[in-house]
Design goal:
It comes from Rhodohalobacter barkolensis. InterPro entries: SAM_HAT_C, SAM_HAT_N, SAM_OH_AdoTrfase, SAM_OH_AdoTrfase_C_sf, SAM_OH_AdoTrfase_N_sf. This is SAM-dependent chlorinase/fluorinase. With 262 residues, this protein is α+β, with helices and mostly antiparallel strands. The chain folds into two domains: 149 residues, S-adenosyl-l-methionine hydroxide adenosyltransferase, N-terminal (Rossmann fold, 3-Layer(aba) Sandwich), CATH 3.40.50.10790; 97 residues, Bacterial fluorinating enzyme like (Elongation Factor Tu (Ef-tu), domain 3), CATH 2.40.30.90. Helix content is 21%, strand content 31%. It contains six helices and 15 strands. The strands form two sheets. Strands 8, 9, 10, 11, 12, 13, 14 and 15 form an eight-stranded antiparallel β-sheet that branches. The longest helix has 14 residues.
Length: 262
């Protein structure tokens, strides 16, 4: 095993939640190494958590365990699961948090029903500490997925909006907004190549219109909007040295259209 456990949560850093999960894991294996992917996921925002995990987790060494806790349904009948995707392992709620990466790759999943891997008498409101953290520590220490519980045929799927293309262009949506206010869409570079090709086009979003895709946001003057292909290989819209979310009046879920000019 890699002995690496990553953590992605919506807990923030004000309270004890993150540190106590690490304490529980160190009590099981003091040689574990932790990487904090993010604890600033907006509260209860499953889509944002799934986006961050999808874009970070596959870069880690094989057999890294990813502990993901964005869990608005904690204490309800939603399942707790462990999942293997490619050479990575994931632990968290079965609420759609793994559906972005699970839709893209084959997976092997197990429901966490073997309570010998949990803390005794788990709380109804803190499964991160009492179920997910100990399971993650055991996985990082060599436990097998099949020991954790019963197989799961299909994970819960978050109904992601997918871009639509036709002879007139592409309609997509803002899927994520990062710390800088950059608008990250679900329109891939390959879809743009396929649907737009060398045609002239205009991009419409919020209160602005763009007529080109530039290499990077620094390709335009300070304070100007730019459309470019970001590091996730999807169309992004930013303001050079500014905040596109605020300046363009755009929120997550907003429509982004690329219209072919005839």
């Amino acid at each position: 095993m890699s002995n690496i456990v990553t953590l992605t949560t919506d807990f923030g850093l004000q309270d004890h939640y993150v540190s106590v999960m690490k304490a529980v894991m160190l009590g099981i294996n003091p040689d574990l190494r932790f990487v904090d992917i993010s604890h600033q996921i907006p509260p209860q925002d499953i889509m944002a958590g799934a986006w961050v995990v999808r874009n970070a987790s596959l870069e880690f060494p094989p057999k890294t365990v990813h502990l993901v806790v964005v869990d608005p349904g904690v204490g309800t009948e939603r399942d707790a699961v462990a999942v293997k995707i490619k050479d990575q392992l994931y632990v968290g709620p079965d609420n759609g948090i793994f559906s972005l990466i699970g839709d893209e790759f084959e997976y092997e999943a197990y429901r966490l029903t073997n309570q010998t891997f949990w803390k005794k008498e788990p709380s109804n409101t803190f499964h991160g500490r009492d179920i997910f953290a100990p399971v993650a520590a055991h996985l990082a220490s060599g436990a097998n997925l099949s020991e954790l519980g019963d197989p799961v045929e299909e994970l819960v799927t978050y109904r992601w909006a997918v871009p639509i293309s036709d002879k007139d262009g592409i309609q997509g949506w803002v899927m994520h907004i990062d710390r800088y206010g950059n608008l990250i869409t679900n329109i891939s570079s390959s879809l743009i190549d396929e649907a737009i090709g060398s045609s002239k086009f205009r991009i419409y979003t919020g209160n602005t219109i763009l007529d080109e895709i530039v290499p990077t946001f620094n390709s335009v003057a300070d304070g100007e909007p730019a459309a470019y292909i970001g590091s996730s290989d999807t169309l992004e819209i930013a303001i050079n040295k500014g905040n596109a979310q605020q300046m363009l009046g755009v929120q997550k879920g907003a429509q982004v259209s690329i219209i072919i000019q005839k």
